[in-house]
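Both lines are given unchanged directly below:

***
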Amino acid sequence: MASVASSGHQSVSADRGAGVTGGVASGALQRIHTMVRTGELPQIGPCPHSGHVANETIVFHVTCRRAPAGGDDSMAHVGKATWADLFHWFGATASAGQPNGSSAGIETVDIPLRIARDAHAEILQIRSQQQLRTLLRSTPVYAQLLAEFPQSTIEPLQKK
């Protein structure tokens, strides 16, 4: 596997495919997998929710979806879909239920975040994607992930 350089970057070619499935190659996804594996994540610091001492870790399940190829103006062509477009959409939707949770354009990753123990229950209750994004953006590599996957969804996970 790739080694992490002192700058925090890794060799993309050496780690290609490790933890990346469904053809969604991403610099941030690869970095996150490497940083978790090497113990660099979760990062230490104050709780991004309360500002108190971060003495607990919470895991967030992030489903990364690539933005539509047409970008923001892809909706400008609504009503001009062909049967081939419908067939492609149906195939992509049906394959989203694959056992490994990935299909072309979708990748899931569980990411840890240090928080204050007294904020844990409150964070688990957050349903606003914007608030969850704000929490995760406190870690630079997570901010990069959310920038690469603006259509991603975030869910805080309960302790097992």
The chain has one domain: 12-68+100-156. The chain has six helices and three strands. Residues 44 and 114 are 7 Å apart (CA to CA). The chain has a mean pLDDT of 75.
